[in-house]
Design goal:
Layout lengths: L18 H6 L4 H7 L5 H21 L1 E2 L8 E2 L4 H23 L5 H10 L4 H7 L6 H17 L10 H7 L1
Length: 168
């Protein structure tokens, strides 16, 4: 923009992304799993709560500095986030961590990768050198367990596809 021109970027006409940018852009992993019916409404609700709680707790743990001579300290977590953290997230995360320590799958880590870091299932599978589909199975299992613990799901979750194939 030229100097002295009060026009802002918001006033400009929308510039569409290039084909290369569109090719790199990807949808949210949760949206993809929900649209493919790999997770249900309860699991989607669980994932969104995990994301919201995780971001709020991490943000609250960081010090805020508006003026260097007067730091304000950490933010306070809203009451509903604190309730979700203590009643649902923390017990679920502790359960997933205990399972991992006993030699179980890294469900908590995979869900953080997908829900918080927004990695695709394919990216998670490749990074961990897994066959395609294992990350989605773990995401489904972990989110179903969260929903069960929260009381949002009454029936036990369907076993992951790998377990169904092994049984059938």
């Amino acid at each position: 923009m030229a100097r002295g021109n009060p026009k802002t970027i918001a006033d400009e006409t929308r510039i569409e992304p290039t084909p290369q940018t569109l090719a790199k852009r990807r949808r949210d992993t949760l949206q993809v799993l929900f649209e493919r019916r790999a997770i249900g409404v309860e699991e989607l609700r669980a994932a969104l709560e995990i994301r919201r709680v995780f971001h709020a707790v991490v943000a609250a743990s960081l010090a805020r500095v508006s003026r260097l001579d007067e730091p304000r300290g950490p933010r306070r977590v809203p009451e509903f986030i604190d309730a979700a953290w203590s009643a649902r997230y923390k017990p679920w995360a502790d359960e997933m961590s205990a399972r991992r320590k006993q030699g179980g799958p890294p469900i908590l880590e995979v869900i953080i990768d997908a829900v918080v870091d927004e990695l695709s299932c394919r990216q998670i599978d490749r990074a961990r050198h897994w066959r395609e589909g294992r990350a989605a199975d773990y995401i489904r299992e972990g989110l179903a367990r969260y929903a069960e613990r929260a009381g949002w799901r009454t029936a036990p979750a369907e076993p992951p596809a790998a377990a169904r194939r092994a049984v059938g």
